[in-house]
Write a structure and sequence with these properties.
Oligomer: single chain
Distance between the termini: 17 Å
Largest sheet: 6 strands, mixed
CATH class: Alpha Beta
Helix content: 25-40%
CATH superfamily: LigB-like
Number of strands: 10
CATH topology: Protocatechuate 4,5-dioxygenase, Chain B
């Protein structure tokens, strides 16, 4: 069975589903380049828990967890099967994890997947992030999940490389960033390219404008799960870099295991 590298996507505004642009095109290209997964474990910034949790719904519902958008977005339904088998496997890899049999798919999962796997014919479950835990804890969580890649499971980490909604510029053209957003994004690109794990895990102190880019950490934490799941000496390659609304870096990375 083909090994599938973990990936991190910045999922941006739900409006991206109505106007996919360069970001949506990059997601589609990435999906075409990857081996077809037997199942997907989506690590979403929009499911936050105090302790580790994984979903196990046999038919996960589409959760429209956003407000004030066009009605067309609330009419979208993404209905893949779930996978009790994968949830059980995750529970075996992460001792003490809570299995949630009712949780559906929030837009951190179904929004990118609706463009990457539009047929919704690959089983999907979700993994929560834990905002009270740090980057290192999520990196270690990812390391526990590393065997899944060799078993044909795509670990899709969905968040945002930057996420300060208070600084969004509604009329900003795509790919125009506030200066501090570009600095933060460039710092991550450099450290990921160098596989500087120590600096990345210390991002709050080491990255420029860390807490300004992320007043709360939940949208960055999925990246560290993907980084840990890729294994020691993995190399990150950028599959897309760009900006929306001035404050949202739309960067996406593929984490390639060491040769």
């Amino acid at each position: 069975m083909n090994s599938i590298p973990p990936i991190f996507l910045s999922h941006g505004s739900p409006m991206l589903l109505l106007n996919p642009g360069r970001t949506g095109a990059a997601w589609r290209r990435l999906a075409a380049e990857l081996p077809r997964p037997r199942a997907i474990l989506a690590v979403s910034a929009h499911w936050t828990t105090r302790l580790a949790a994984v979903s196990a719904s046999p038919r996960p519902a589409t959760i429209h967890d956003f407000y004030g958008f066009p009605e067309a977005l609330y009419e979208l339904d993404y209905a893949p099967p779930g996978s009790a088998e994968l949830a059980s496997r995750v529970a075996g890899l992460v001792p003490g994890i809570r299995v949630d049999a009712l949780r559906g798919l929030d837009h951190g999962a179904w929004a990118p997947l609706s463009l990457m796997v539009p047929a919704a014919d690959v089983p999907v479950i979700q993994l929560a992030v834990m905002p009270e835990a740090d980057a290192t804890a999520h990196f270690e969580l990812g390391r526990r999940l590393a065997p899944l890649a060799r078993e044909g499971v795509l670990l899709l980490a969905s968040g945002s490389l930057t996420h300060n909604l208070y600084e969004m510029v509604p009329d900003a053209p795509d790919d125009i960033a506030l200066p501090h957003v570009a600095e933060f994004s460039d710092w991550f690109a450099d450290k990921l390219g160098r596989s500087d794990i120590a600096a990345l895990l210390d991002w709050e102190a080491s990255a420029p404008h860390g807490r300004r880019a992320h007043p709360t950490p939940e949208h960055l934490l999925p990246l560290f799960v993907a980084l840990g799941a890729a294994g020691e000496h993995a190399r990150a390659s950028a599959v897309h870099r760009g900006y929306q609304l001035g404050a949202l870096a739309m960067d996406a990375y593929r984490f390639n295991p060491a040769a």
